[in-house]
Design brief:
The complex is a heterodimer of chains A (365) and B (357).
Chain A: H1 2-11, H2 17-45, H3 53-60, H4 68-102, H5 115-134, H6 146-168, H7 173-195, H8 200-210, H9 222-238, H10 240-246, H11 250-255, H12 260-282, H13 288-300, H14 305-328, H15 338-356, H16 358-361
Helix pairs in contact in A: 2-4, 2-14, 3-4, 4-9, 4-12, 4-13, 4-14, 5-6, 5-7, 5-12, 6-7, 6-12, 9-12, 13-14, 13-15
Chain B: E1 3-17, E2 20-33, E3 37-41, H1 48-55, E4 63-68, E5 71-72, H2 78-82, E6 85-88, H3 100-105, H4 120-132, H5 148-161, E7 166-170, H6 178-195, E8 198-202, H7 206-212, E9 215-218, E10 226-228, H8 230-235, H9 238-242, E11 249-251, E12 256-258, E13 265-270, H10 273-285, E14 288-290, E15 297-302, E16 309-315, E17 318-322, H11 325-340
Parallel strand pairs in B: 3-8, 3-9, 6-7, 7-8, 13-14, 13-15
Antiparallel strand pairs in B: 1-2, 1-4, 4-5, 9-10, 11-12, 15-16, 16-17
Helix pairs in contact in B: 4-5
Classes of the chains: A mainly alpha (365), B alpha/beta (357).
Chain lengths: 365, 357
């Protein structure tokens, strides 16, 4: 601590803004974290049955006099959903940031690059195989072998990723995104064809999953979801230094002594860890991975990954919790889709990015 | 003088595929000394990039070794190499919202641990590098707000922050306008002399290289690499030879390149000073030679203030007064068309070929 302090004193005359900027960053971290906690608690309290904050706290900490029904609702339904939203938002934001830097493409994220579609396809394949081979083994989708769908999702994700890395060598920024979107449509088409061979119940469960929802996650999924996602988050954080160097472009990064190949493999593996398990349990969640990094850059006004990594995690969790809260507000007529909410927030942000970015506006990016 | 880099029987080239090898230059035997600015010149396609890539460790040599402080650079690991050799490239960097200071700080990459945390010593080196590159007032600005010239200064500062023994710059002045190019060149020359680092710069800018380099590396098509002080290479004719295939002619007297044309006509030009020089240049552009005994005579008259001139053209008793060089050229061209037309000498129409200085 002492060392870094003297450093800033010595260079203070030359570079004034860094110290005040750091103070702002801390303020934003605290605000975003507080916002996240706020929405987390709201998630537990608000729903078709409204539970006051005292009830939420009592249920959470198993205090005396906690209402058993409320406790059941909170612990069994709302808590896993809120945790999944927090983890999911953090994971998607982080993977979006990594992919945007790695592909040097402001619109890259697991969904735009088709990774989500790959995962969907993998899951559809596993579900169908299960139903064809032996539906008795797997009575319901939610009870389906945890590992099976995670493996299917990861495999699909990795396959698409390998394809995208290969294609990205030959095509420009925008073309790559169009390629990713087409892969998404292609996967959707294939999924429909495959689901043709399953029975109706299973098809219905699958299409429910396919809508994307944090509510499909239960406690039994966490032993797989949490460690894999955490591994992805930690490795992303470690990659902050090489990702910063990559901002200069690959040639400069290499000249700084960085191994492009291993950094790329590490970042892509991390992106798979962050996207595939989540998609396996929650279905495809759109827009978050794309939007969160831009909001973080705007809020913290930096491209430094050492600042951006924690900020996309916190901000991603906050936004996912807020979006999920909107979905689960006690609507009178029917419930909203999570991806509809995401699109309402996300699509305008994407349009803004395209209009603002000179390279994205024209086609010769 | 201390040799920092030695090129030991180096052969450069690249794989064409199917085991075929394109050799660019062989048996390169030279060295780079501490504190010198060396410019690498050569016509397009001679292999400047291949040589730069080989020297910076990006590409393996076909034969021989590149020794940096006695160690072969192709055997050093990337991190060790980055501590002794830094690069500045032509490409425009898109660094998003990084400030110039943060970009320069990335130069400390090979010295920091995995967190990238900068120590007090690192910050001092960064500040010094920024100052040496003359980028002090740019430090707190965001890279996207800087002009091309300012960005290259920041990239030079970043290369300095790597504390290298040698800095290699590949066509870094390509995007810049002339004043910025001169500025960067002077900066590099000063840096080499002040810091004792080797600075090797590949460039297309022949006149700037001739004026600023301590030594030139001249790579003609098909090799071999010629090394020497710029003036030596001009005097022994190697400089003119290297660019002979480019369709231009190097004039040893003026130290500049011209498009080779045979003069069709000659005039007398009487006068003196700057205006005389520029009139001569203008006439040469339209293939009119200045000769003492030509029948057509142009007299240059300056007014009292010395800022406006008149050109009096006298030919076969006709006399015309021109008030600008543009007007003069039209008159001279009209006269030469009358007199030379019957020679019907097919003119070597290379007027569109302008040499970019």
């Amino acid at each position: 601590m002492l060392k870094t302090h003297t450093a800033t004193l010595e260079t203070a005359s030359l570079v004034s803004p860094s110290e005040t900027r750091r103070a702002w960053h801390w303020l934003f971290f605290i605000l975003v974290f507080a916002g996240g906690v706020f929405f987390f608690l709201l998630e537990l309290g608000i729903g078709s049955i409204s539970i006051p904050l005292s009830g939420v706290v009592a249920a959470l900490f198993d205090l005396e006099g906690a209402d058993p029904t409320w406790k059941k609702i909170i612990v069994e339904l709302r808590l896993p959903r809120a945790i999944a939203a927090a983890i999911g938002g953090a994971a998607l934001g982080t993977s979006g940031l990594q992919l945007q830097t790695l592909f040097r493409n402001p619109l890259a994220d697991p969904w735009a690059l088709g990774l989500t579609a790959g995962s969907q396809f993998g899951v559809a394949l596993v579900v169908t195989t299960a139903s064809v081979v032996g539906s008795s083994v797997l009575e319901q989708f939610s009870f389906l072998s945890n590992l099976g769908i995670v493996a299917g999702s990861s495999l699909g994700c990795i396959l698409v990723l390998a394809l995208m890395v290969w294609v990205s060598r030959y095509v420009s920024t925008i073309t790559l995104l169009i390629f990713g979107l087409m892969l998404g449509y292609f996967a959707q088409g294939l999924i429909s064809v495959i689901l043709h061979f399953t029975n109706q119940t299973q098809g219905k469960i699958f299409s429910g999953w396919n809508d994307g929802n944090f509510a499909g996650v239960y406690w039994e999924h966490f032993p797989i979801l949490i460690p894999l996602t955490l591994l992805g988050l930690v490795s992303a954080w470690i990659l902050a230094k090489p990702l910063n160097a990559l901002l200069l472009g690959e040639n400069y990064a290499r000249s700084l002594g960085m191994s492009i190949k291993s950094a790329r493999i590490a970042a892509l593996s991390s992106a798979v860890l962050l996207s595939a398990p989540l998609t396996a349990y929650c279905g495809p969640i759109l827009f978050l991975g794309l939007v969160v990094p831009h909001l973080a850059r705007g809020l913290f006004s930096t491209s430094d990954h050492k600042v951006l990594m924690p900020s996309v995690m916190l901000l991603g969790a906050l936004i996912a919790l807020a979006a999920d809260l909107v979905v689960h507000l006690p609507w009178e007529r029917h419930f909203l889709h999570l991806n509809a909410v995401n699109a309402v927030i996300g699509a305008p942000v994407v349009m803004w990015v395209i209009l603002r970015n000179k390279h994205m506006r024209s086609f010769d990016a | 003088m201390k040799a920092i880099v030695q090129l030991d029987n180096l052969a450069i080239g690249y794989q064409l595929g199917k085991g075929q090898i394109k050799k660019i230059a062989t048996a390169i035997q030279t060295e780079l000394f501490a504190g010198e600015l060396v410019c690498l010149l050569g016509p397009n396609g001679a292999g400047k990039s291949t040589l730069i890539r080989t020297l910076s460790g990006m590409q393996k040599p076909l034969e021989g070794r590149v020794l940096l402080q006695g160690q072969s650079i192709h055997q050093l690991n990337p991190r060790q190499l980055a501590r002794q050799l830094s690069l500045v490239l032509t490409e425009r960097v898109q660094t998003g919202m990084l400030s110039a200071y943060e970009v320069v700080a990335l130069g400390r990459y090979p010295f920091t641990d995995w967190t990238g945390r900068l120590s007090a010593a690192d910050h001092t080196i960064i500040a010094q590098s920024i100052e040496m590159a003359g980028a002090t007032e740019l430090a707190s600005r965001v890279m996207t707000q800087l002009s091309d010239g300012e960005r290259q200064k920041v990239m030079v500062a970043r290369a300095l922050a790597q504390e290298p023994e040698i800095m290699i710059l590949d066509e870094v002045t390509a995007f810049l306008d002339l004043p910025r190019r001169v500025e960067i060149m002077q900066l590099l020359r000063e840096l080499a002399h002040r810091t004792g680092k080797v600075i090797l710069l590949s460039t297309h800018d022949m006149e700037l290289a001739l004026r600023h380099a301590d030594r030139l590396w001249l790579l003609p098509k098909g090799g071999p690499l010629a090394v020497g002080a710029p003036e030596d290479l001009v005097l022994n004719g190697l400089f003119a030879q290297a660019f002979v295939s480019e369709g231009v002619h190097f004039d040893v007297l003026s130290g500049a390149f011209h498009t080779p044309k045979s003069a069709q006509n000659a005039v007398q030009l009487i006068g003196e000073g700057t205006a005389w020089q520029w009139t001569k240049r203008a006439l040469e552009r339209i293939d009119v030679e200045v000769a003492p005994d030509a029948p057509c005579r142009i007299e240059l008259l300056a007014d009292a203030g010395g800022s406006t001139w008149q050109w009096v053209v006298a030919e076969e008793g006709n006399r015309r007064v021109c008030h600008s060089i543009y007007e003069l050229l039209q008159v001279v061209q009209a006269i030469s068309n009358d007199t030379v037309l019957e020679m019907s000498n097919p003119k070597n129409e290379q007027d569109t070929h302008t040499w970019d200085h």
